[in-house]
Amino acid sequence: MIYGRSVFHIVASLIILHSSGATKKGTEKQTTSETQKSVQCGTWTKHAEGGVFTSPNYPSKYPPDRECIYIIEAAPRQCIELHFDEKYSIEPSWECKFDHIEVRDGPFGFSPIIGRFCGQQNPPTIKSSGRFLWIKFFADGELESMGFSARYNFTPDPDFKDLGVLKPLPACEFETGGPEGIVESVQIVKEGKASASEAVDCKWYIRAPPRSKIYLRFLDYEMQNSNECKRNFVAVYDGSSAVQDLKAKFCSTVANDVMLRTGLGVIRLWADEGSRNSRFQMLFTSFQEPPCEGSTFFCHSNMCINSSLVCNGLQNCVYPWDENHCKDQTAS
Ligand SMILES: [Ca+2]
Ligand SMILES: [Ca+2]
């Protein structure tokens, strides 16, 4: 019999995971004590040579009421292999509804599921299709076991195997900030970060002034290999460049404007050697939330922008409030 199985929100040791929407998986008793609590488990791993992670206290019994998230990140054009040690035991249950390991093919809790595992038999070797694996270990409120130990290593992504030995990517980072500005892919060659034929993985760090957030508007966007996200994409991160802060990723024919929740935006362009005609140009505008202070301009869309951006020829608001009625002013 199973009683009082509860689910907790967990903060991993190295990354903050927003594991909202945790729900009771069992069907017997809905005695959910939705206690919020932090437990040190889970990790963010990208050691180049691979590594090992285990359930808490392994090979002793894991504690009850744990949810650990492990995210493994491979370098560009690498995949991940995950091997579980034979010394393995997780409380068995039908469909592994109670204690379990869940593995997903991607960086998120909503990435495609590879499998859910429990019982006495260690899972088979798991291979990712891309650069990330998302692994959750869940233990409910009673009946604990030894847990697991998993070893991961990186292998070349077969999608790129015809390219031979790949050169390391050039370092390519940019820093910018202020009330507004433009970040664009032409900076890569112009500022000598990479030649026009090298694969690039470039990041633009945009820092807004204190208490400000960032609005990003595409002025230009085109991927040379549309819908081939492994070859080229533009990604937007909100707060840091870590994968859990990924806000949007574009690799198709369209890219949408993005409103960030923080004052640190990271734009990332990935383009392989055959995708260096992929390009983007993006306008960033720093804004504060209303009520608008001092001489800031109210955009009518929950944005207060620097008054110097009014009638400057660039649309900084979501709708062009800042550029309306400008002819009157230049005429007078
Ligand atoms: Ca259990
Ligand atoms: Ca403007």
Short account of what is shown:
This protein is mostly beta strands and 332 residues long. Helices cover 3% and strands 34% of the residues.
Features:
332 residues; mainly beta; Jelly Rolls; 2 domains; five-stranded mixed beta sheet; 3% helix; globular; disordered N terminus; binds calcium ion
What is the topology?
Blueprint: E1 43-45, E2 51-54, E3 66-73, E4 78-84, E5 100-104, E6 113-117, E7 126-127, E8 132-139, E9 149-156, E10 173-177, E11 180-184, H1 187-190, E12 200-207, E13 213-222, E14 232-238, E15 246-250, E16 258-259, E17 264-271, E18 279-287, E19 297-298, E20 304-305, H2 326-331
Parallel strand pairs: 1-3, 10-12
Antiparallel strand pairs: 2-9, 3-8, 4-7, 4-9, 5-6, 5-8, 11-18, 12-17, 13-16, 13-18, 14-15, 14-17, 19-20
Bound molecules: calcium ion (2 copies).
Unreliable spans are 1-40
Report on the biggest sheet.
5 strands, mixed
The helical percent reads under 10%
What are the bound molecules?
Answer: calcium ion
Straight-line distance between termini = 82 Å
Rounded average pLDDT = 84
Signal peptide: 1-22
Membrane topology: Single-pass type I membrane protein
Disulfide bonds: 41-68, 292-304, 299-317, 311-326
Keywords: Disulfide bond, Glycoprotein, Membrane, Phosphoprotein, Receptor, Repeat, Signal, Transmembrane, Transmembrane helix
